Amino acid sequence: MEQLNFIMGLLIPGPLCPGKDFDVFLEPHIEELLDLWKVVPTLDALTNKSFDLHAAVIWCILDYPALSTLSGRVTRGYYVCVRCDKDPCSRRIRNKICYIGHRRFLPRDHPWRKKKWFDGKDEEHDKPEDFSSDELKKQLERVMDVRLGMHPQNKKRKRGENGQCWKLRSSLWDLPYWSSLKLRHNLDVMHIEKNICEYIVSTFLGIAGKTKDTINGRLDLEDMGIRKNLHLKRDGNSYSVPHAPYVLNKTQKLAFCEFFRSVKFLDGYVATCIIVDGCNLQGLKTHHCHILLQRILPAAIRGILHKDIYEAISELGNFFQKLCAKTLKIDVLHRMKDEIPIILCKLERIFPPPFFDVMLHLAVHLPDEAILRGPVQYG
């Protein structure tokens, strides 16, 4: 993984970027990879002897939108999660598709499966399953004839049948070992962490246009029949929005901002984004959110917000802190695999359904990838 060993192929994004036709540009690279897999006569500079070299792709490193482009996997709609093949956790709410229902990842005898705090129902489903090799083969066969490029006979494809998770068969499947790999494409831990951090801070501060505490979110709670104290209140010819415990009031915001001013090692740019110009949260860099979520945010809300909220955010930050460590222990990763569904369930009891998009859900799959791959720096 040293820089001098990197071989990077770049296509600059823009109005004329290849997009879904990226596979056309990938085919020459696949031909070279096939040659590398067969045999390449190579000279050992130390012994001055020749040997047969075989080289293979172990996994791909990319962000979530690029994962869809390279793999051909659907990353929109009900099948937006690339790790949940059958019976995903996606659910339609007022104005979007959310990912709630992480009680499915808990043991069958867990008491929270019978509680109606979460969505007003008992949870009887098991966690989503992976495709078997035969099912995966059928999925790819359905998109074998998808034409790439600006072909004159191309037509807009009809909506696929229910359960179809692939939109095209990537040329990566031509590699003889590709179907045997357990981890083909890495989830981008750093961008997942950045998005989650932005969701939390935006909702805490009630930033217009970015907060997940919306009118539709309150109506979703009413549709589910849960948390009646947060339902819209009729006030004559209008409605009022009750204050949510996860949104800071004026006094709490002052204490929250005062904490950030007191943090000596926090650079002025981050402090300004959060304290002065909250609407500029997207200007925060990935490494800013990395330290915010893991270290600073749990300390900033301690004693300001309710204990349940503080503990859930603190446990989430601790989860990413252990996941992003330079060295990992297998027994710790298995313990984290059991802990993350509980953390997400705690968050489901606090935040409204629109808070849970696919980025929150993908956290439940990160320990499994770390067990296969190792530390984050390798993915």
N-to-C SSE string, H for helix and E for strand: HEEEHEEHEHHEEHHHHHHH
Mean pLDDT over the residues: 87
Number of helices: 12
- How is the biggest beta sheet arranged? 2 strands, antiparallel
Structural class: mainly alpha
Describe the structure.
This protein has 379 residues and is mainly alpha-helical. The protein has helices at residues 22-38, 64-71, 133-141, 189-205, 215-224, 250-262, 268-276, 286-301, 307-323, 330-350, 358-362, 366-373; strands at residues 40-44, 49-53, 60-61, 90-92, 97-99, 185-186, 233-235, 238-240. The protein has two domains: 3-88 and 131-185, no CATH class; 189-378, no CATH class. The strands form four sheets. It has a two-stranded antiparallel ribbon with strand order 1-2. Strands 3-6 form a two-stranded parallel ribbon. α8 (286-301) runs antiparallel to α9, α9 (307-323) packs antiparallel against α10 (330-350) and α10 packs antiparallel against α12 (366-373). The N and C termini lie close together (10 Å). Mean pLDDT is 87; it is low at 276-280.
Strand-helix topology:
Elements: H1 22-38, E1 40-44, E2 49-53, E3 60-61, H2 64-71, E4 90-92, E5 97-99, H3 133-141, E6 185-186, H4 189-205, H5 215-224, E7 233-235, E8 238-240, H6 250-262, H7 268-276, H8 286-301, H9 307-323, H10 330-350, H11 358-362, H12 366-373
Parallel strand pairs: 3-6
Antiparallel strand pairs: 1-2, 4-5, 7-8
Helix pairs in contact: 4-8, 8-9, 9-10, 10-12
